[in-house]
Each structure stands twice: as structure tokens, then as C-alpha cells.
Amino acid sequence: MALEPRLREILDEVRGSGGRVVALTGAGISAESGIPTFRGKEGFWVVGSRNHMPQEMATHAMFLMEPGEVWRWYLHRFGVVRHAAPNAGHEALVRLERALGGRFTLVTQNIDGLHRRAGASESRTYSIHGDAAWVRCSNDCGVGLLPLPDLGPRDAGSPLSAGDRARLTCTRCKGWLRPHVLWFDECYDEENYRFESTLRAAAQADLLLVVGTSGATNLPMRVGQLCFSGGSALVDVNPEENPFSELAERSARGFFARGSASARLPEIVEALAG
Ligand code: APR
Ligand code: ZN
Hints:
This protein has two domains: 5-35 and 86-132 and 190-273, 3-Layer(aba) Sandwich (Rossmann fold), CATH 3.40.50.1220; 41-83 and 133-181, SIR2/SIRT2 'Small Domain', CATH 3.30.1600.10. The chain has helices at 5-17, 28-31, 54-57, 60-65, 67-82, 88-100, 114-118, 162-167, 190-193, 195-204, 218-229, 243-250, 261-273; strands at 21-25, 45-47, 50-52, 104-108, 125-127, 130-137, 146-147, 177-181, 207-211, 233-238, 254-258. The strands form three sheets. The chain has a six-stranded parallel β-sheet with strand order 5-4-1-9-10-11, with helices on both faces. Strands 7-6-8 form a three-stranded antiparallel β-sheet, covered by helices on one side. Strands 2-3 form a two-stranded antiparallel sheet. The mean pLDDT is 93. The chain has 274 residues and is of the alpha/beta class. The site of adenosine-5-diphosphoribose has 26 residues, from helix 2 and strand 10. Residues 26-29, 31-32, 37-40, 54, 109, 129, 211-214, 216-217, 237-240, 242, 260-261 line the site of adenosine-5-diphosphoribose.
């Protein structure tokens, strides 16, 4: 579909000003790669006879009680991710990064690595909820980030074997390794999740391009509000209304580009960088 005139006007203005662009992505950009979104129907996990939602599974509290179950859940999710491929939305953002260079920052909530696999650079990508490619020590003993051990193909339901358990053990302190992801009962920080860097990028953005997030988490909403109150242009790409689309509609330089990431991003990027 052709860009709406008001959207084109906003994008032309950003292009003309040579300002900085921050893209903020959520699970929606990977939906068309076949990865279930967090708050969609397929997110739950069964432990014993109880269904658990991600908001319960993805917690430090649950990891302390049931580390093996939490790992099984993540290994299942990571398995889905491994078989997924980047889509036209991820690819469009890579073209934007290549065109803008140092004027571009990608802030992603996704741990699926699809931005990287599409070609996004490590240095301009802030993975504010972590990255499935890495693990770290749950005791924070100082081993740093380690690549996710290869446990081979596994069934969704299969329990951890002794070999899996060994590969998920920290060689330094013998504690559990944990996924390098931000849990719901934990706080953002700079070292693991680029908290301050993200706020800095938001404060300097001339355009915030939000894609596929429901605005349920704290830092993304702060980014949205900073850009809104700072007068940045604000474009939200999402098939559904959400807090960012509301901000965009209230903003003097905002636009709600209703639709899917793969349908809308190629043209938006073309207008900004083509
Ligand atoms: N293109 C663009 N957006 C889409 C698409 C699509 N094809 N399909 C769905 N969406 C939108 C939905 O309308 C919804 O607004 O993507 C959003 C997905 O929302 P969530 O499932 O809540 O995902 P997200 O916002 O990334 O969740 C944030 O919460 O669970 C935690 O840490 C987890 O990073 C995650 C965070
Ligand atoms: Zn350790």
C-alpha cells in the first residue's frame, strides 16, 4: 500500500533534517517469522498439571524454585526461534541501519536474534531484554557471557538429562547457568541490558519508529514518553491499537501506521533512506 500523505510528510521531514532514528521493536516484528508473541494465545507452559503464563515462568523466583522447568521452557522457546528466519520487517531495518550508520539505533525487546541474523550490527543493537544466544552464571560469579550450550535437538516435553544439567552448570562456581534474559521480577541495568544507553538514544532521537510491541514493559514506555515529550516524530507500526499508537496519535509529529511489520516497514524505510 502507498504511504499515507501525512506519514510521507513526517518521514520526508526526518530525512531532510538528517536527524537520529531509534527503532524500538517487540515480539510483533517476529510474528511473521512464526514466533508466537508473548501475550498471544500460545505463550503458556504446563508444569505438573498447572498452566503457567510467561509472566510466571520468566521470573527469578520461578528459577530459584524450579530451575530445570524454567530451562525446559526456554529450551523449547529457543528451539522455535532456531527454526525461524528473519522477515521483510527485519530486513528493512537493516537497510535503514546501513543508510543511516551512526544516526541509527535499534532497541529491541526480542531475544530471538532475528535482527542479528538479518544483518543488524551488534554495536547499534541494544537487546534490552537480553539475547537467547547467551547464558550467564545465575550466581553472578564473574564468568561473564557464554554462548548457549548446544544441547542438541530435543522434544518440547523432555526433561533435562544429566548431560544437559552438566552443560548448564557454571564451570567456575558449579551453580546453574541461566539464560541471558531480563526476568519480570528483575530490573533493567546498563551492563546486561543497556538501560542508560537506551534512555540516551531516546533523548536524542528525531524519530522514534515503534514496531510490534504492546507497551506492557517499563523501559519501552519510558522511551515512548521521552520521545513524545521531547517533540520527536513518532511512528507506530502495529495491526492493533496500543499505547504507542495512542502516543503517536496525540503527537503533533506522530502517525499510527496500522498494519503488519513486513507490509509497512519496507515502504517506511524506503521513504527514510531510499
Ligand atoms: N507486525 C507488527 N506487529 C504485530 C504483528 C505483526 N505482524 N503481529 C502482532 N503484532 C503486535 C501485537 O498487536 C502486539 O501489540 O505485536 C505486539 C506484541 O505484543 P506482546 O506479545 O506483548 O510482545 P512485546 O510487546 O514484545 O512484549 C514485551 O514482555 O513478556 C515480556 O520480555 C517479554 O520482550 C517481551 C515484553
Ligand atoms: Zn558461576
